[in-house]
## 1
Amino acid sequence: LRMTEAGQSYYEQASRLVQEVDGLEQAVSRHNEAPRGRLRVSAPMTFGTMHLSAAIPRFLSAYPDVMLELELNDRTVDLVAEGYDVGIRIGVLPDSSLIATRVTMMEMATCCCPDYLRRKGRPLKPDDLRQHECLPYGHKRHVEWSFEVQGKRKLVAVNGRLCSNNGEILRDAACAGIGIAHLPTFIVGDAIKRGELLTILDEFRPPLAGVHVVYPGHRQASIAVRAFTDFVRSTFAAPPR
């Protein structure tokens, strides 16, 4: 036997309804009960390894009946289709049916090492980056970086010999003098503080973006999801430098 496409769709929607009813019953009849059960979480790779990993043990200590499955991945995960209870998203959120709670703000920094500036000179405006070796984030060597020029958003096409979907690799390459990086300060903040990287084009930084906890509507009543959302919000109330 094999389920039809219509049957599969019916099953998925019915399963979500059953979960929603279960969650509502938990919220009403066991409002004061401690969170319990399995919690599947999706989060970005670098934010997870650099910041979330240190907080997770405290969450598990506070909620000993919760079993946490944490998946780190920089792709945009379909929480509903892939069975996740909650996710962490960084940047501007696209329109969706997910419920979002902003937990902190993120700032971008354009930066490079002092040796690179000595060899290549300092860009004075965003368009100058076209003449420099840049370190694009993602799977393409040719990307656009966002800046604010005279109160308006400006996209500047940049390229370079190294691109990666991992911010830590690009940060280390910038520290080694390979090129200019355009990354969140939660990735490059420590290197900037130590003087290994210098920020450039500070007057053209784009507006702050948000770090959000998102979850499907049918998980809204889940005690574990609420506990995780509140924990992340309290942990990162002050933005990582």
## 2
Amino acid sequence: RVDRCNAPRRPWLRGVCFVHEIMLMFQPRCRSWSCPACAEVNARWWAYRAEFGAKAILGVDDCEPQRNLMSFLTITSHPRLGESGSIGVFYHAWNVLRLRAQRGVPGGMYFAVPELTQRGIIHMHAIETYNLGRR
């Protein structure tokens, strides 16, 4: 774990509180995914944004404990499948998993974002109420 961003050429910023007569000098983080410190902060920030957005989109209410069981789920195709094999298998496998989850938890919901990794295989992040991420 890296504690702070060490990216070069970040400006120095100055914050002044005239009431308490203090000044603070700091360098903002670079926010790059390639920076270990910033990537960790970015991941936490995007997870928070995804949860907040999913609650709004999926209609999950904090006052309804039975519906407040959201899980974050990441699914990645096997690397040996390659790009075309990964895409061909992934959507069928997700559909089978989704149908099985719907039978187990009627009325469950999900919000999923598929993407291609740098290696060209498909990868998906989902926020779901089927409890798949907790099994």
## 3
Amino acid sequence: MSMQVFELVIDGKADGIDAISVVDRPAIEEHFIALKEQHEIKLAEVDNEKRILMGAALVPDKQIYRKNGKEEYYVYFSKETIKKASELFMINGNQNNATLMHDKKINDMSVVESWIIDDEVNDKSVKYGFDLPVGTWMISMKCNNDEIWNKVKAGEIKGFSIEGYFADKAEFNSDKDIYEQLKKLLEYGN
């Protein structure tokens, strides 16, 4: 038996992304990179860290496995939902909302750059070694939190994960699934 697939959508003003979490195992299976900057000062080369994390926040049409008790299913986001969610995230001023592993609120973390990939060849993300589809939401986060930065350098934190509220709409895996769901809906209507 195949699992159900749900498209997550924005269905109201309260929906959208409230925070970005830094995690060890991002659900979208995309890791970020930590950017460093080198300055030359009077013939001496000093390695000053920018403390910028860059990576994908959401990848379009990527099925993400979820388990809620005994129920297992997949969710995904369309390009249109990702674009709308990324815009609402910034409009609502959520760029300073960050958590560690979706559990602990953390300070001194801010989204400083946000963009949607619109060209797989010439996008800024390609320069940094990413190979992601058009419609992916990329972010850069400034990390002024020493505890988190040390976890990044130690390889304990590897990517981003979103926190937010979305409505879902079911998709069906076959014509038989559609027939069964319609039959159930009609039965409940009587």
